[in-house]
Amino acid sequence: MKIRITDKEIREYLDIETTEFPKYISPLINLANRFAQGTRPRIVGQMTELIQQFTGQKLAEWEHWYLKQKPEAIKNATEMILKKIDNFKDALNRVDKSLVEKWIRDLIIVKTFIGLRFQEAVLKKGAFIKKANYRLADPEEESKGIDGYIGNTPVSIKPHTYEAKPGLMEKINAKIIYYKKVEGGIEVDYSDIL
User: Fold this and answer.
1) What is the pTM of this model?
2) How many CA atoms lie within 13 A of 53 on its CB side?
3) Which residues are bridge partners to 150 per DSSP?
4) DSSP code at position 58
5) Among 148, 29, 21, 157, which Cα is nearest to 84's?
6) Which helix (H) or strand (E) holds 120?
7) Which residues pair with 178 in a beta bridge?
8) Are 135 and 190 spatial neighbours (Cβ–Cβ below 8 Å)?
9) Across the chain, which distance is largest between two alpha carbons, in Å?
10) Helix (H, G, I), strand (E, B) or coil at 4
11) Angle, helix 73-93 to helix 25-36, in steps of 10 degrees
């Protein structure tokens, strides 16, 4: 039997007051922290290790113990995040209808096109590496799981997660090129064709 315990219930069971923030504030600070990296272990310590060293039972004991171990951590993290919030304020002051429209066009038109057509870029790059020609598959070849050709080699382009699901893998009479989305693009494994 699975039972869900809400954050509110956990706070109640541990006798911890609920902290309320105005609407949008918590996600905004969280986003600023992601950019500022103010709560990384180098700033606030490795929390999983620290909590294991802590021998007390109450929140107040933990706070006292932690601040003794890391007296500047909260101040340093706060300063880092506030600096990023100031950057956000500057950026928000530059946002206007034209900029939002440009962002939406980039998302809907450009990124959708790239997302749906990146296979051609994968084929082109593979052909360049192999010093060969490439071409996209025709509809009949696509029905057989072939996405294109590098030289005379039929290839199928699959996400890296496809490898981990052998039960889902259909029989494709082609070399497989795996890719993984990474920040700023994709990482492509051409080892099956090189």
Assistant:
1) 0.63
2) 10
3) 134, 153
4) S
5) 29
6) helix 112-130
7) 158, 189
8) no
9) 69
10) coil
11) 100
